[in-house]
């Protein structure tokens, strides 16, 4: 015998007729929004393909698909999707490039790059974030990204030169090692500016060994720190 329940024997659901949007719908809406600022069809296709929610498991689905940065611990954020789109577009990827990213964070930007480039090396200064990004990328079967723990100010000299370099934390000035590790004809895209002041998104192209700078507008990024950060008590 089943225990008697005190509630009504059958529930009748009188739904409002409002359906929750699916993850695909949420992502499509986000990409439509990003398309106001990003023209490149291939960049939009990559953003339609990569499930951003897989990189921010601590946030709800709806929040994961809002066009805003989100905290991922250690005082850092996954960037706003529109900014990810703008930076990726600025790299002008054709599919053959070797890309270096500084500031792995959640791994989301690296996943978007992985859809558009041959290979991505990404450096993260917080070991626990690097480990978490590795897991998220592996869970999606993304196998052309290597996550390195280290200080992005040094770049990755043993793997240089890179056809493209993108920095997703803001240094106060252009890191010399990164300009040296950029291939001839390549692009370096990065925000530059003080921690709490005005930061500009810049694109530098290497021509005959020197960098030619373009300003791509105002942005706000977490600072690019110097040296190793340990994980203790940082969450
Ligand atoms: N691209 C990330 C967002 C990065 S937030 C994403 O898609 O989620 C910036 C990241 O840069 C943070 O994870 C921060 O720890 C890292 N960072 C800051 N200074 C760094 C440095 N010197 N070297 C490598 N990573 C750095």
Query: How does the overall form come out from the CA principal axes?
Result: elongated
Small molecules bound in the structure, each named once: S-adenosyl-L-homocysteine
* Largest pleated sheet: 7 strands, mixed
In percent, how helical is the residue content? 25-40%
First-residue to last-residue Cα separation: 50 Å
Mean pLDDT level: 92
Total number of beta strands: 9
Range of strand content: 15-25%
Q: Output the radius of gyration.
A: 20 Å
> Could you give the order of the helices and strands?
HHHEEHEHEHEEHEEE
Widest sheet: strand ordering: 5-4-3-6-7-8-9
CATH class of the domain at 74-219: Alpha Beta
What would CATH call the homologous superfamily of the domain at 74-219?
Vaccinia Virus protein VP39
Total helices: the number is: 7
Assign the CATH topology of the domain at 74-219: Rossmann fold
How would you summarize this macromolecular structure in one to three sentences?
The chain has 235 residues and is of the alpha/beta class.
Verbal overview:
The structure is a single chain. This protein has 235 residues and is an alpha/beta fold. It has a domain of 146 residues: 3-Layer(aba) Sandwich (Rossmann fold), CATH 3.40.50. It has seven helices and nine strands; from the N terminus they run H-H-H-E-E-H-E-H-E-H-E-E-H-E-E-E. The strands form two sheets. It has a seven-stranded mixed sheet. The chain has a two-stranded antiparallel ribbon with strand order 1-2. Strand 4, helix 6 and strand 5 form a beta-alpha-beta unit. The relative contact order is 0.12. The C terminus is likely disordered. The protein binds S-adenosyl-L-homocysteine. The site of S-adenosyl-L-homocysteine has 23 residues, from strand 2, helix 5 and strand 4.
């Amino acid at each position: 015998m089943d225990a008697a329940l005190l509630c009504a024997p059958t529930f009748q659901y009188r739904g409002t007729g409002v359906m929750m949007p699916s993850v695909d719908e949420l992502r499509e809406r986000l990409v439509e929004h990003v398309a106001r600022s990003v023209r490149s069809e291939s960049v939009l296709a990559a953003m339609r393909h990569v499930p951003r929610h897989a990189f921010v498991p601590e946030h709800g689905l709806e929040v994961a698909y809002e066009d805003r940065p989100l905290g991922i611990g250690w005082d850092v954020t996954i960037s706003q999707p529109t900014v990810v789109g703008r930076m990726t577009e600025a790299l002008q990827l054709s599919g053959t490039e070797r890309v270096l990213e500084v500031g792995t964070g959640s791994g989301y930007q690296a996943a978007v790059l992985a859809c558009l480039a041959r290979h991505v090396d990404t450096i993260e200064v917080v070991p626990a974030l690097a480990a978490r990004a590795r897991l998220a990328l592996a869970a999606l079967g993304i196998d052309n990204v290597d996550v390195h723990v280290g200080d992005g100010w040094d770049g990755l000299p043993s793997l240089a030169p890179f056809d493209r370099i993108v920095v997703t934390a803001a240094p106060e000035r252009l890191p010399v090692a990164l300009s040296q590790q950029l291939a001839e004809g390549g692009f370096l895209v990065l925000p530059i500016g003080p921690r709490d002041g005005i930061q500009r998104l810049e694109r530098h192209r290497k021509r005959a060994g020197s960098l030619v700078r373009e300003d791509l507008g105002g942005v706000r990024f977490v600072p690019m720190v110097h040296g190793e950060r340990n994980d203790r008590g940082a969450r």
